[in-house]
Structure formats: C-alpha cells, structure tokens
Design goal:
With 389 residues, this protein is α/β, with parallel strands linked by helices. The chain is built from eleven helices and 13 strands. It has a seven-stranded mixed sheet, with helices on both faces. Helix 3 links the parallel strand 1 and strand 2.
Length: 389
Amino acid sequence: MKLRKKQWKKIFLMLLLLFLCSGCTPETASAENADKGKTETEETDAEDYYHDYKKTGGQVALVIDKSSVMDNGYNQAAYEGAKSYAQSAGVSYSCYGASSDSAQAYKKAVLTAVENDARLVICAGSCFEEAVGSLQDSYADISFLLLDGVPRDDSGQALAIAPNVHCITYHEEQAGYLAGYMTVLEGYKNLGFIGGEPLPSVERYGYGYLQGIDDAAARLGNSGDIRVDYWYADTFLPDGQIERMSADWYEAGTEVIFACGGSLYQSVLDSAQACGGRLIGADTDQSGISELFLTSAMKGVKSSIVIALDDFYANGKKWPQELAGRAVSYGAAKKCIKLPYSGDAWRFENVTTDEYLQVLADLKAGKIQVSDEIGSRPKTAVSVIYHND
C-alpha cells in the first residue's frame, strides 16, 4: 500500500518528536556547545547553523530580546525549537531581535515580524507580555506563542488571553529545587543565587533553589552550617557589577553560585575562573561552556515549542481548542524539568545518578511538593542573606 505525501510527512514529524522529546525534553549530549577539538571548518558550520533562517518573510517568526540568539541558553533553545520544527515541516522561519530593553522595542520587534508576513510569532520571554497584550486583539489573524508569560496591559495587569494566543510557562521552582538539593547532597555549604530580574520565572527558580537546599540540609542534619547569598542584578546581560558581586562572594567563601538569567552567567563565570569557584546554569545544559558548571537547572523550552507548533499546524494553522486562549505549564510530570546527567555533563562526585533519579521520580509522582509561591519568601532553616534588602 502506498503512503500519501501527507502520511509520510506525519510519520516524519512523529519521528522528530520522539527524537526531540520523551514527554518534553530529551537527555542530550553537550557536543553542540563544546569548543574543544573543533576544526576551523566545524566552527564555521556551527556559525552557519544559526544563520540559515530567512531574514524576512518566514511563516514562523521567533522574536527575542536584545541579547544574541547564540546565548548558550534560553534564546538559543527557543531558536532550536523553531528551527527543528520548521525544517522538518518545510515551513519558512525567521528571527528578530529587539533593539533595546524597552516595551516599545519589544512591540516594534513583534510588529516587524508581522509586517514581514509572519503568520505565527513566537515571543520568547515575559518581556513580550505587554506587546502581546496590546496586539492580540488588533491582529486577530496572527497567531502568537508566548513563552514564560501571559498577555498584560501597560500597568502589568494580566489580560484575558485571546483565542489566537497560546501561552507556555514552566515549573522552574522544580528545576531550582533539584539543583539546590543535589548541590547540598554533594557537600557544598556556602552557596549563592544571582538572578537577572525579579520576574516570576526567575523568582520560581530562586525560591525552588532555596527549598531544595533546605530539604537536603534537613536530610543531612546540617541546616545550621548552610549559608546562601541571594541577589537580583536587574539585568540579564553580562555586567561589571555582577562580576564584582560574585567575586566578592567567592572570595568570602561561597563555593557555588546559581547564575540565573540570560547571559549574565558570563560575568559569574569570569569571577569563578579567577577565584576557583563553581556555578550552576539555567534553562539549558550549559556544561559545554566550561568545566566550572557543576550542573544546570533545565526546562524544556526547545521541545515545548516543537510540540506547540506541531499542534498548531496539525489543526490547520490555528491553535486547537484545548490550547487557544490558554496557558499551560510544564514540569517534571511532563518530563520537562531536570538536571543534565549524561556523560560529562554529570559533574557531581559524591552523589550518584541513581540518587538524583530517585529525587526526580519523587517530584514527578508528587511525593515531593515544591511551592511555586512567589508572593513571599520561602521559610528556611538554612541562613539566607537577601542582598536587595
């Protein structure tokens, strides 16, 4: 029996999804990020990988903030998700960046994508909440996928989500919990957290991190010996103040800092290299950047985009009823939250992968409950010093 073209396409997409996501995100090697042993040709190929999208006119348009798409983190994961689906489905795609960190610039970036014939605009990050809120009704024929947020007005109030908008959020508190828990089990006692801005996703990472630290310390019976420095830098970009603050912490005895947000990790990494410290990455597996990354608190940005786009195109280029005008949140139960544990990405020496997988299984099963409350700080037995006070 001959298969029709549409049937072959459907089979191919199913195989792609199985490869990319067992639920939400797969455990992948970090070879794409590793720089060791690359030839000049391989370096050029890696650069070309991120510049093969259409400058304008893509049916699917990814819109990011002012930082680079090649940030080894959130933006790169969003780009790879859009690329993976578009290439497999034969859909044109493009990528646009905001010119500055302002509501006007984010809205202009979205409008530029729309004016260049995008039919589905992927807005990567809560910085686009206001832009989507102001455009969702006036551009009802355009579909929007908003990551890490919901549409808001210019005063920050949440709006009803229009039928042409689908929102995806993540249980970052679970990823932060895993990172904090395993770091304390490893034997570290002096820890730090540097977040970009006190946005909900960053706060969930941070407060989950504190909960994981506190639970692991209670298990070990050394809560009184644990100290955590906690600070929001008010930027997701590398910054001299971040480098100075993290260097001060390392020199004062901090062993590991969770660098949470965009490319600010670069400043923390500079300090770690100078002071002999370690750090924890956010959003994606950042182990390939440096051996100093102890682990990474991961969420499935890439695969959640692939899943959403597949649902969108399978439903005739519109959001299906269960997604239209709705926000969904992915967590450990959907295999969307984890730490990297394959090959060289596993940097723990005193904790086994079996111990980690048991904690992850308990999270998935609901045996471990991590609060996503960000209205108040978590109560902890360990000492936490909040440097923004």
